[in-house]
Predict the 3D structure of the following.
Amino acid sequence: MIVAAYFWKRSRQTEKHKGLRRKIERLARAKKRFRRSSVKNREASEALRADGDTLRAKIAGLEAAQQAETLAKRTAEQDLAALRSAHDFSPHLAEPFRAFLRLLKPKAVVGFEKKRIGSLADGGYVMIDDFADVTHALSAGIGDDVSWDLDMARRGIKVIQLDHTVAGPPSRHENFDFRPQKVIGDSGEEQGATLVDLIGKVGAEPGRLICKMDIEGGEWQALAATPVASLQAVRQVVIEFHRLRYFVDPDWRATAEGVLRKLTTSHQCVHVHGNNAVEGIMIGGIPFPDIFEATFVLRSAYRFSASDETFPTPIDRPNLPQRADTFIGTMDY
């Protein structure tokens, strides 16, 4: 009896142990299921969070696009109003406008010819054919045309391209260095770079840098914020100047006059060309293109003589080929 009771007790204990093991196993399986569920929940939560971020980014993008559209509409309305007011016959503006244009009177460069660089339409510019010592070029504003950039890159010149409105250049070259930046006057603006910073960091020796600038009106503020000492590092610069219609506004006029006076302290204008894509203006009874291109070269690097050229010249081309080029004349004001 004692033996039987012992084995019966052992069997009971064994059953209890087995029951405990089964409970432990069930708890372990439940724990695994819970962990798997937690992982899935965490993944689902992260996916929802990512979806939320994406949705918020889309909403922010739509809001930014709407704001840009509103700003563009407002700018277009302001431009139209300014264009209407820029057919001006005020006697008091005639002499200030003549003085402004006299700063742009081109001279010939002794010992050098001119050459068209880039496209045979919009995007091409006339410059002095002197690139042998040039190592770097700044191309501010590229849009969908890099014909000027390609001409420079094929000469072995490193081209730093700057444009915050495009994802990249429409074509590639090993000498291109694209940066999605806006050329600005105020160094505090996001995604922007001043000419002072760009010229200082480009790595070119003085006089071995050239520049092309077409930044849709931003050139006035960018140049206004650039001291002569920085400009003297640039051997040649070709600029498309915009919105001359605003000359009727005293504040804008003061900025523009200051820019040209400063620029012509270090550089001499050697070429001008009117952009025929927009209607011309009239300031103080004097007609001139609302948008025009001007090429300047470093005074200390060249010698000059008087020029009797009539603009446009034989190597100029209309920005819009289907329209006649804009006549400027000899620039004798």
Observations:
- The CA atoms of residues 224 and 258 lie 7 Å apart.
- The longest strand covers residues 234-241.
- The helical segments are 2-85, 91-102, 147-153, 195-201, 219-224, 228-231, 250-266.
- Residues 2-85 form the longest helix (84 residues).
